[in-house]
Amino acid sequence: MVVEAAGRFLVTTALKETWPKNQEILFLGEWCKIYSQNENTLNKYYTLKYHWDDRKKLRRDYLYLDKLFEKLLIELATDLNNIHKTKFTVNYWRILIGPWLGYFTHIIYDRWYMANTALKNFKELSTIILELDETKLVPNDMTHFNNLFISDLWNHFIYGKIINELNISNVFYKKSNTNQKSNKIRKTFREKIKFLYSKFINKYSLNSSYLLINTSLSKLNYFKLLLKLKVIPVPNGVFSIKTSKPSKIFRNFKINSENRVSKSNDFEAILRQLIVKQIPISYVESFSELSKMSRTLNWPRSPKTIFTSHSHNSDDVFKQYAARCIENSNTKLIIGQHGGYFGIGEYGFTEKHDIEICHKYLSWGWKSDDKKVLPIGQLIFKKSINIKSFKKKHLLLVTATLPRYSYFIYCVAIASQWLYYFKDQCEFFDNLDNAIKGETIVRLHKNDYKWNQAKRWKDKFPNIKINNAKKNILVQLKKCRLFVSTYNSTTYLESIAMNIPTVIYWDINYWELKDSAIPFFNKFRKAGIFHDSPSSAAAHINLIWENVDEWWNSVEVKSAIYDFNNNYNKKSKDLINKLFQVIK
Length: 584
Hints:
The protein is of the alpha/beta class and 584 residues long. The chain has 3 domains: 52-184 and 248-283, no CATH class; 189-239 and 297-375, no CATH class; 389-568, Glycogen Phosphorylase B (Rossmann fold), CATH 3.40.50.2000. 41% of the residues lie in helices and 11% in strands. It has 21 helices and 16 strands. The protein has helices at 55-84, 90-121, 142-148, 152-165, 189-200, 219-229, 266-278, 287-296, 311-314, 316-329, 349-357, 418-430, 434-437, 453-460, 473-477, 491-497, 518-527, 534-544, 548-552, 555-568, 575-583; strands at 9-11, 25-27, 45-47, 126-131, 170-175, 210-212, 305-308, 332-336, 360-363, 373-375, 394-398, 440-443, 465-467, 480-485, 502-505, 530-531. The strands form 3 sheets. It has a 6-stranded parallel beta sheet with strand order 13-12-11-14-15-16. The protein has a 5-stranded parallel beta sheet with strand order 3-2-1-4-5, with helices on one face. A 5-stranded parallel beta sheet has the order 6-7-8-9-10, covered by helices on one side. Helix 16 links the parallel strand 14 and strand 15. It is globular.
């Protein structure tokens, strides 16, 4: 199809079949440009500035969307109860659909804002929208949704829906050459074995008072706790269900009625329309199958307590089971902290949601005004090891990637801001002494999200040593002289717990901290552990490289680590007994 139009051509994603030839292009964001694709072949192009580069706006939007989420949850709970002829409470639906609704609300706002900004600031825009099979772009469940929202195809589809509701000069529709994957679920052999175990072995647990699943505990501690509670283990993992296609009969509800949305707010109107079209099939057409599966797995009928650290986000079968038990049997849901970001990052949807739905939240040491938070200590605590750093030679630089498209809001480098993050990593490496550069290993994140991490590094530094993260990071940690952490996550908590010399740096403009965490990072900063610029971190490492042990064992460093561990990385001397008491 030959496309010719006046003015600029709006490109929303990296799908090359939506890029016109011989036209001036307006890229909606850096996510449109894949590094291996050379944009120098284009005539002219301009890339829109990302709205959440203004982090004050990000916080304002987070607060606005949080209030909107609560309003939508109440309305959607009513609609779903009507569809399924149930009378579940809002809390039931919060547990089941809350993660999806929160993510989706944040995602649609971001896509709407960028599209709306382009249309407001550029006249005579044109764009190509692909003709796609919409039924294959409705998520089966939360796990499927997590795969969809990082894809170019799904994001192009969503941008197309939004653009159709806004005023744009010219829209060209084009048949897609992209092969759309079927929504049909194929169970793996491993999943089939787990299902058979659940179906037959779990029968002996039907009258059990407790369910422990995906707890983050080590295998040894997990079985110690099971033994103490006299509970049979259940297999970890997400069980899929049979899903049908989206049905107009089920999706004829409207959460955009006049008394629910301001006519002046086109974002909320568009969001409500898309919720009806995009809400996962497992919550609508296959809701009965979801309920049936949670019973087929033979988990305890009416447990007193459910304990998990992971299943409450993406496992729809577990969420339906937990919500039903809480609703009908007054079951207590205990959630364990499942990442180093929690309690340290300034704000974020998942932390707030997790605390909202649980009876007790087991933190790794941090406290909160919310009495639900119980600082029990590290659930996955690593043993301290005595490493003589002078006997090691490598510097291990562990890097992060994040999806090219935003998802839920929290204090990290979002979407195209990863490019700023990558620039910082290059600046850090560039400022190391040559001898240290030769001993540096860059460990890439296992998920590339089409950022082409390895190629970017090799193009910048041809001789750099790259590790593709196939091996367990603990193996590399034990072999390095110095570990460098570059983002707010679990890795530096583990390395510090293992007594491995650690330097941390990140841009505090993109990795904002809670006020309560700032004093501890200030103490880290004074001790040389934490740096808020790559050049500062590199300069410190150049200074201590030949005497890492001396620095790491200094009074100032040990004092800073002691205070931090007691508040965020606490080792519980009697973890199993403490968990036993909480669960009982």
